[in-house]
Amino acid sequence: MALIGREAAALLNDAGIELGPGLTEAEFDSVHERFGFHFNPDHRSLLATALPLGDRWPDWRNGDDLELETWLDSVAEGFIWDALHQSPPFWPPSWGTLPSSTEDIATTVRRELRGWPRLIPIYAHRFTPAAPSPSESPVFSVWQTDIIYYGANLL
């Protein structure tokens, strides 16, 4: 697993991405305590090797908790937006009848998404599933309900 982190960090470094020191065990524990998830093995391996820095990279070390929560919640917010503004509204039949109130729509979307693998931001609108997702987990581009299989794995 550490090899994946080193390979990913080398690719980012070669691309000119600023890299800080990797997260410590205490920092990984802090992320878990504050946000309730664990990174999948490949994502964790990268972040233990080096922390990518910049305005489109989540700063798991020094980032503002509200900003990180907003990033983590962006998938649900995008689904809610499409349920409210898309014509026709994005609303899978398995979710039942589309509620009439914005609050009920948001509640239903959040409830339904809790049954899906939690997506964790890597960079901008690129996400990977949280643990217990295994090594070699895919990367997705997520823009509201426009979800694209972006890559087979972190590399």
Describe, in plain words, how this protein is organized in 3D:
The structure is a single chain. The chain has 155 residues and is of the alpha+beta class. It has one domain. The chain contains 5 helices and 6 strands. The protein has helices at residues 2-14, 25-35, 41-49, 65-85, 102-113, and strands at residues 19-21, 50-52, 119-123, 126-129, 139-143, 146-151. The strands form 2 sheets. It has a 4-stranded antiparallel sheet with strand order 3-4-5-6, with helices on one face. The chain has a two-stranded antiparallel ribbon with strand order 1-2. Strand 3 and strand 4 (126-129) form a beta hairpin. Helix 1 crosses helix 3 (41-49) and helix 4 (65-85) crosses helix 5. The longest helix is centred in the middle third of the chain and has 21 residues, at 65-85. It is elongated. The mean pLDDT is 96. This is Knr4/Smi1-like domain-containing protein.
Count of individual beta strands: 6
What is the molecular shape? Answer: elongated
**Sheet having the most strands:** 4 strands, antiparallel
- Lateral strand order in the biggest sheet: 3-4-5-6
Average residue-wise pLDDT = 96
Count of alpha/pi helices: 5
Quaternary state reads: single chain
Radius of gyration over alpha carbons?
Answer: 17 Å
Instruction: State the separation between the terminal residues, measured CA to CA.
Output: 12 Å
How much strand content do the residues show? 15-25%
Classify the secondary structure makeup into a structural class.
alpha+beta
Helix amount: 40-55%
SSE run: HEHHEHHEEEE
Number of domains: 1
Unreliable spans are none
